[in-house]
Amino acid sequence: MKIFVINAGSSSLKYQLIDMATEEVMAKGLCERIGIEGSKLTHKPTGKNPFEAEKPMPSHTDAIKMVLDALCDKDHGVISSLSEISAVGHRVVHGGETFSCSTIINEDVKRALEICSEFAPLHNPANLIGINAIEEAMGKDVPQVGVFDTAFHQTMPSKAFMYGIPYKYYEKDKIRRYGFHGTSHRFVSGEAAKFFGKPIEELKIITVHLGNGSSVAAVKYGKVIDTSMGFTPLAGMLMGTRCGCIDPAIIPILMDKYNMSTSDVNNMMNKDSGVYGISGVSSDFRDLAVAASEGNKRAQLALDMFTYQTKSYIAAYAAAMGGVDAIVFTAGIGENSPSIREAAVEDMEFMGIKIDKDKNQIRGTVDVTAPDSKTKILVIPTNEELMIAKDTLQLIDNK
Ligand code: ADP
Hints:
Elements: E1 2-8, E2 13-19, E3 24-32, E4 40-45, E5 51-54, H1 60-72, E6 85-92, E7 103-104, H2 107-116, H3 124-138, E8 144-148, H4 158-161, H5 168-173, H6 182-196, E9 204-210, E10 214-220, E11 223-227, H7 250-258, H8 262-271, H9 274-279, H10 285-293, H11 297-321, E12 326-330, H12 331-336, H13 338-344, E13 366-367, E14 376-379, H14 384-397
Helix pairs in contact: 1-3, 10-11, 11-13
């Protein structure tokens, strides 16, 4: 069984072809600048030379056709024909309250996705275009599955997902916390349970996904009871360029004072804020670490804010769950930055949380718990694509 995994953005498309017998990636790649000048495909077949092509891709359908050609190409391809692909799994950003698990895509699901586009106007339409483009390129018979960023968080109780604004906005407009990165939180909490050799239903786990976007989730007995992102992925802790939670009154004050439009203020909060906005240096934590080590105080402040906010969520979620068996760090920063991990759990011995500073330097999947820590601290690389492929396989097997 070979599953094709697609993550379609508004002008980009990431993909992986996964052989489910071995769970190995046969090829992966990226189409950039779809619909704009300078479109480019970067295709990386495992065990063969990478291939790059700069060719116009006016639409996602053109991009997908190029990718499918690359997968079957005699030089840099990895399959002999498209019939080897059993199904296609799509990352879909917003499933609203409609989707609490992955689902086989049909016309009803597509209509529901269109309705959810209201919540994620930049992402969901691209996901739908990706689904339609596959149908066009591979025919309607190839099963397609949607795997939602929001789905894993649908178990949150209302006391965690409601906002303190008039109830009518929930009833009428479905304004509430949804949470994102659900596929990653699900994958790493599942892997943590495997590490314990225990059913996830017996564990209290805090998953800490620190990447370009960052979020924390409280996974109690296999179900999310709270998470830091909100109605949109702008909420929660400050991130690379996103502000995270701020006093909401700041927005109208700034809009009035500087005559800012909604799009000005949205850009400011999404693109000019976070550790980038604080430091004025970069959104990349490697650059921030270098700048801070050279004495840049604002870079150090950005790092301190980031780790302080991470730690606040860890403590809050330990309280929400009445304890914590494991804290799992994942994603670009969580997997690769020992100093961020160390600072995020600093001085938490009083809660039974202590990191082993030496083990924390080791790379890969690693237990970085100090011998006298009650809570395990784990680093587990996330693999959202594999999770999407596994869901896809399971759903088509049960069809
Ligand atoms: P995305 O959310 O786009 O999937 P990633 O999970 O790949 O992002 O995380 C990307 C971030 O990881 C980069 O912005 C960079 O700051 C950070 N990162 C990658 N490698 C390191 C490293 N060695 N040390 C610190 N941060 C790193």
